[in-house]
Specification:
The chain is an alpha/beta fold. The protein contains 17 helices and 8 strands. 49% of the residues lie in helices and 13% in strands. The chain is globular and about 60 Å long. Bound molecules: adenine (ADE) and zinc ion.
Length: 355
């Protein structure tokens, strides 16, 4: 499904005011495909779980912790992100963490959430793999049954750790392989190229996991090339630095490789100096299947709807642009074609009501 040019004299080509845009975007069924469940750990939950699990914190109040969320780069953020995880200890903690996100997602009319989790960040602290996955799976089941939200889990390997440690995480996941949709690659990008994980991704693909990877967030366009050629990823997470390589841009466009872009994250981690300088709209106009996502919303100042709204405002997007982004989220999701068609039709009906 190729994107069509914006109709010149249609309501779709117009800007909407913020309230209408908000109602429109909220009404559109959407998928979120780049969300770290650990990145939804809100300061209030950090404090509540710290008390319950007798974990000492270096901050006096949730507000004081929030004030520390002023990051210079990805590495700086990851330090706080890993520190915060110390409060997650039991299966119930993971259940509550995930359920809180699913509740919020459902309120924003997210109908499909493909959620990353970082098991190595927990097993390295002595939390059993089973506590993590079973808490998340139980929440996913309840989200499906009680909220009508479709959920998939994607296990991320931490790229600052070794290939051998990634193999160990994969081994722990095998008994749950029917319940885990894919594997991903996250954490410190610079100096940890996708090729470091070529063999573990090959094994994961052989076992039936769908491959994705963070690439071209802080790392160069060459890492996006490697993720495609060596890890055989079906989507690239972030991928914004692909723009530095015109041939790569053509390849991503021609192959309809989705980029899961996270605008507020990119500004908070200083990948772009401001939202007005973000390349989201350029990627969209180029014809790439680009999507909007929230990454680690508890740290970056907004969940999915806020990412859409702030981007639309900063980049002067039309109703056509934002509805294309919402459609792309469905097209990029790992859903059966029949389900995608059903959701796209629902979106068309909502668009024609609004426009
Ligand atoms: N882990 C959590 N958020 C991440 C991001 N934006 N990049 C890499 N690893 C992450
Ligand atoms: Zn991410």
């Amino acid at each position: 499904m190729e994107p069509k040019a914006t109709p010149k004299e249609s309501p779709l080509s117009k800007r909407m005011d913020r309230d209408v845009m908000q109602n429109f975007l909220k009404a559109m069924p959407k998928a979120e495909i780049h969300l770290h469940i650990e990145g939804t750990l809100e300061p209030e939950m950090v404090f509540r779980l710290a008390k319950k699990n007798a974990v000492a914190l270096g901050y006096k109040t949730p507000e004081a912790l929030k004030e520390a969320y002023n990051f210079s780069n990805l590495e700086d953020f990851l330090k706080l992100y890993y520190q915060g995880l110390a409060v997650l200890k039991t299966k119930q903690d993971f259940y509550e963490l995930a359920m809180a996100y699913f509740q919020k997602a459902s309120e924003e009319n997210i109908v499909r959430a493909e959620v990353f989790f970082d098991p190595q960040a927990h097993t390295s602290r002595g939390v059993p793999f089973a506590s993590v996955i079973e808490g998340l799976l139980e929440a996913a089941k309840d989200a499906e049954n009680k909220l009508g939200l479709s959920v998939a889990l994607i296990l991320c390997f931490l790229r600052h750790l070794s290939e051998q440690e990634a193999f160990e995480a994969l081994k722990q996941a095998l008994p749950y392989k029917k319940a885990i949709l894919g594997v991903g690659l996250d954490s410190s990008e610079a100096g940890n190229p996708p090729s470091k994980f070529r063999r573990v991704f090959a094994k994961a693909r052989e076992e039936g996991f769908l491959p994705v990877a963070h690439a071209g967030e802080e790392g160069p366009a060459g890492y996006v090339r490697e993720a495609l050629s060596e890890l055989k990823v079906l989507r690239v997470d972030h991928g914004v630095r692909s723009e530095e390589d015109p041939e790569l841009m053509e390849e991503i466009k021609a192959r309809r490789i989705p980029l899961s872009v996270c605008p507020l994250s990119n500004v908070r981690l200083r990948v772009f100096p401001s939202l007005t300088e973000h390349n989201l709209k350029r990627l969209l106009d180029f014809g790439i299947l680009v999507t909007v996502n929230s990454d680690d919303p508890a740290y970056f100042g907004g969940y999915l709807l806020e990412n859409y709204l702030q981007s639309a405002e900063a980049l002067d997007m039309s109703a056509w642009d934002v509805s294309t982004l919402a459609k792309n989220s469905i097209l990029a999701a790992f859903l059966p074609d029949s389900e995608k068609q059903r959701l796209l039709k629902e979106q068309d009906a909502i668009a024609s009501d609004f426009l």
